[in-house]
UniProtKB/TrEMBL annotation:
Keywords: Membrane, Transmembrane, Transmembrane helix. The chain crosses the membrane at residues 6-27. It comes from the Bacteria. This is Heavy-metal resistance. It comes from Flavobacterium swingsii. The keyword Membrane applies. The lineage of its organism: Bacteria, Pseudomonadati, Bacteroidota, Flavobacteriia, Flavobacteriales.
Length: 154
């Protein structure tokens, strides 16, 4: 009988331990996801510059304009790359066409960078006099804020 009681007690203890571990993993995973979430650039900029509601609304309009322009330019890049790589299926690559398409890609990328720069000039215009110092501090962080997250090696 002692062996049966010991076995029963061990099985019950293992079941309780498994339930506790499952609960821990379920609840701790949700918390760790919250810590892993990177705040959106919009939220970072509003917080760092201390925008009020009116400034935040105007900033959202700037974001909409910016996104619309960048999306259009990204589409142009996609189409131009498609044309460039379609040159590879030809028996002989026409260097003039290839160079023309590569130059077009460079010009579109230049336009993207100019659009980004104008976007930040417009954000600066939204700042009140007392926020300009914070804007200057923010400019040193812009590349980090807008960098894409590194892929996880799971």
């Amino acid at each position: 009988m002692n062996k049966i009681k010991l076995l029963t007690f061990s099985v019950i203890a293992l079941i309780i331990l498994n339930i506790a571990m499952l609960g821990f993993f379920i609840f701790s995973e949700n918390k760790s996801e919250d810590f892993r979430k990177k705040p959106k650039p919009r939220e970072i900029i509003i917080r760092k510059l201390g925008f009020d509601k009116q400034q935040a609304k105007a900033y959202q309009e700037l974001i909409n304009w910016h996104r619309l322009n960048i999306d259009s330019l990204q589409e142009q890049i996609k189409n131009t790359k498609q044309n460039l790589y379609s040159e590879l299926v030809k028996p002989e690559v026409d260097n003039k066409t290839k160079d023309s398409l590569v130059n077009k890609l460079a010009n579109i990328q230049k336009e993207i960078e100019s659009t980004h720069f104008k976007h930040f000039q417009d954000i600066k215009k939204l700042c009140k006099k007392e926020q300009l110092g914070r804007f200057s501090d923010l400019t040193t962080e812009l590349a980090k804020i807008f960098s894409k997250p590194k892929p996880r090696n799971d």
